[in-house]
Design a protein that fits this description.
Elements (H helix, E strand, L loop, with lengths): L7 E4 L5 H12 L3 E6 L3 H10 L7 E5 L5 H15 L4 E4 L14 H25 L5 E5 L13 H21 L5 E7 L14 H6 L9 H12 L10 E4 L6
Parallel strand pairs: 1-2, 1-4, 2-3, 4-5, 5-6, 6-7
Helix pairs in contact: 1-7, 3-4, 4-5
This protein binds NADP nicotinamide-adenine-dinucleotide phosphate (NAP).
NADP nicotinamide-adenine-dinucleotide phosphate (NAP) binds next to helix 1 and strand 2.
Amino acid sequence: MDSIKNKVAFVTGGSRGIGQAIVRKLVLEGANVAFTYTSSEASANELVKELSTTEAKVIAIKADNGDADSIVSAIHTTSQTFGNLDILVNNAGIGTIATLSDISIDNFDRIVAVNIKGVFVAMQTGAALMNDGGRIITIGSTAGSRSAYPGTTVYGMSKAAIAGLTRGVARDLGPRGITVNIVQPGPIDTDMNPADSQFANVLRSAMALGHYGETSDVADLVAFLASPSGKFITGASINIDGGLEA
Ligand SMILES: NC(=O)c1ccc[n+]([C@@H]2O[C@H](COP(=O)([O-])OP(=O)(O)OC[C@H]3O[C@@H](n4cnc5c(N)ncnc54)[C@H](OP(=O)(O)O)[C@@H]3O)[C@@H](O)[C@H]2O)c1
């Protein structure tokens, strides 16, 4: 993989789970990284401390993905702090397993705000500040293309929406050499989807590989797409799901 050394990255939701692994990987590859969090301040600070021994710089910014002004401000802070923006990773996301009759309108609105509107705002703000040849990578879900079990209703809708958004924005930004892709994980062991939950066995039984992925599996793919080696991949929805959709 070619280097992303000295590139500037902005990652949403980097305090835990997949986002934390993405921040760690990009920093270890030499990028300067700003990441957001909402409630896990202690984990965010620990990650900054852990990575402070590297050559690259890392900052944590409290910013709710459901609040457009916070995202705009966090992205401006990133480009002012590091003098640039090359890589945007939309990772922050929330989900509730609930069927049509069970999901409240408030919950619907919150999922739409965090998972869809926040991604749109970050893409619009990030693209305006980004260098030509930059990268936009969004974490969707296999639930965006296939509903493998009941209860993915609104979460799956949100992930399908950002897959559509990704394709359109890839067309919009192609002339500037900015690639725009969506990475769609299957079951990855995190607080959102723990590998030791009761539900986990149902998922494992539907996967070709029969086991959960690790957060670093997703981070490695994101780092590849962010690197110069990923320059001809755009508008793509890439599954990383242990064969859930095989
Ligand atoms: N794990 C899976 O199996 C799986 C599968 C497919 C797709 N995904 C997707 O992968 C992404 C990461 O999931 P995960 O499993 O790592 O989830 P997670 O363990 O729940 O971690 C979520 C991260 O996002 C942050 N976050 C949540 N709401 C936020 C908000 N409103 N604004 C800013 N940051 C926010 C959290 O920070 P705070 O704690 O500070 O709030 C945390 O750092 C999500 O988009 C999810 O939909 C996950």
